[in-house]
Amino acid sequence: MFEDKLGMGEDAILGYGLAKQGKLIYQPDILFFHNDAQQSHYSIQLKQYACRVMYSRLYLSYEKARLDHSSPGMARLHFIWYGFWRIGGYLVSRCVKRTEASRQMLSGSLQGYKRALRSNFEYSQARNAFWQVEAKKTNKFEYNHKYSISDCRKEGPFSNHSALAEYVRLFCGIPMPGCYGKFCHLLYLLVHRI
Question: What predicted TM-score, i.e. pTM, was given to this entire model?
């Protein structure tokens, strides 16, 4: 998927997967803002962007079904329904405004829809088991238990990485031996209110 430059849903999968583990900390402060509408490889070429959006939707549906332990058939049906209305909207847009952008969005969506329906996505719980084993391997590290959730909030957004690591370990089931800056930043961007 990523080799074909069709990967797009990693943020949604990471956020949903973390939310399924337990409650997460919410920090209202904005630490990172970037408007990449002009520079992003996701949105510079509209046809490829529309293809990515459509293709990744089936993958996201399967991942959500896997994490929820629900039927992959329902995930596929949801994608077909989603694609029908998405492509239908692009058809109407193309009829109303005959622009190059509307043509590219329609064409890319059709291409992504066909590719998604022809692709074989791995649908198994094996990945869950793999990460559970990896998490157990890291339990050999020592953790500092003196911090609480309130410490994370009082001291500002991730000013105390040990407190965040401890919170993630205790409530999300994800052991963190020390501070992982990138993971902390991603967690910060994907958290929900408690």
Answer: 0.53
